[in-house]
Structure formats: structure tokens, C-alpha cells
Amino acid sequence: MKWVKFILGCAGLLAAATFTAVRFGGMEVRRLQTEVDQLEQERTQLLEYARRLGAARRVAQVDVVRQRKDQLGRTVSTLLWQEIGPDGMLGQPVAVETVGKLVYFESLVLKFQQKYVGEADPVRGASLAMFRRIFGDCQAPDSVLELDRFARPPRSLESEENERLCAELWDKFWEFVEDPRLAEEFGVRVAQCEAPAVPLDAGQTWVLTLDAAGGLNLRRIDARPGAAADAWPRCIETPGSMSAMAPDSALP
What we know:
It is a single chain. The protein is an alpha+beta fold. The chain has 2 domains: 1-53; 56-245, no CATH class. The chain has helices at 2-53, 114-118, 160-171, 173-178, 180-185, 242-245; strands at 56-69, 75-83, 94-99, 102-112, 128-136, 188-194, 197-199, 205-211, 216-221. A hairpin with a 5-residue loop joins strand 1 and strand 2. The longest helix has 52 residues, at 2-53.
């Protein structure tokens, strides 16, 4: 009888120990799984943050329609210029004539603090560019007309508050250049003019890209079908001042 009681007692203790181990073991497994899920979520967020910082988008493209020599032997290029909106929509084509083999594409550029870029801020989630002029190395920059602001593709920032902020950023562009404290207050890391340049040849097509956390880049691509001189409408540039360049949305 004593042996039966002993065996039953041992069995009870074993069952209790097993129950306790399973219960607390399950809790530990759930805790570890929660930590793993949190780490995986943080990893995904960090990867997305890094992707945004390294992203770039097309902001303009240019076709070299034709070239000729003027009386002084300088290269005169007829270009077809089109800006590209964030959604890929093309702006109106604009015909531009430059003098010189090396052609510059001048733009105002706003670069923002990395936290705004990484967190996909609706206004400051990527650098902004507002193109001003296109000119050759045989031209004085102030001798050419500024690009027609009405040729830019439309863009909506989804709210009036975002529209106002973007307009204010462009209105204060030159203040940001002169006042680092003001720039930091608005999340602006760099405010400057950029003018990347490349030598052009007839028949080429180039695309300008804007890094989300950086500046402008030029890259040659294959010529688009129909990018011949007779395939494009004639567009006339209109002169404009800095204030006239910025539409109500103040977006490039």
C-alpha cells in the first residue's frame, strides 16, 4: 500500500512538473515570438527608411533634335525640353536653343534633413528642384530666357496645408541660402543652385534625375521614337522673373 501511495505521489509530482514546464515554456515561446516579430518589424522599417534615402526619380528629359554651326563655328543645338512630375506625367514640351557644345541645366534645389526623407514626409520626403535656365558654354547665363513655368506638369500635395508649406519653402529659398538656422527650422539641409552639364550630340536623349536625399544627375538614354525635329510642336519660351517662376503650388 505504501508503494502504491509512493508511486501515485511521484506521478502527481511528475504531472505537476510537466504542467508547469509546458505552461511556462509556452509563455517563454510566446515572449520570444513577440520579440522576433518586433525585430522583424523594425528591420522592415529600417529597410524602407534606407530605400527612401537611396531613391531617385526622373524630373526632366531632353531630346537633342538638331545641331548646326553658326558663323563663328560654335555648336547651336535645338533641344526639346520636358519636365516630369512625381507621378510620371510629362509637362508641355518646350523648344530651347543653346550655343556651345557643353550644355548646362540650371535649377534651384532644396535638400531636406534625412529624418523627413526616411519618414516619407508629404512635402519634404524627397529633394525638390525648380528648373530655371538652359544654356550652352558659349552663352552668358543671364542672356537666356527663364523656362516657362506653365510648362511644368501639375502636381497635387493632397492638402492645402502641404501646398502652403511647399509654397513657403520656395518663397524662402534665398533666405535658406543665407540663414542656416532658418533652414534648419524648416527641415532644409541644403538650399543651392545646381547646373549639371554634358556635351550634346544630335539625336541623343538625356534624362535628369533627382536623388531623394541628394541633387541632380544627368544620364543618357536611348532616343525616344519620333524625337525628330518635325515630330514636335513649336513651343515659345516666355521670360519670367524668380517670382513669376513659382506657381501657386510652388512645385517644380
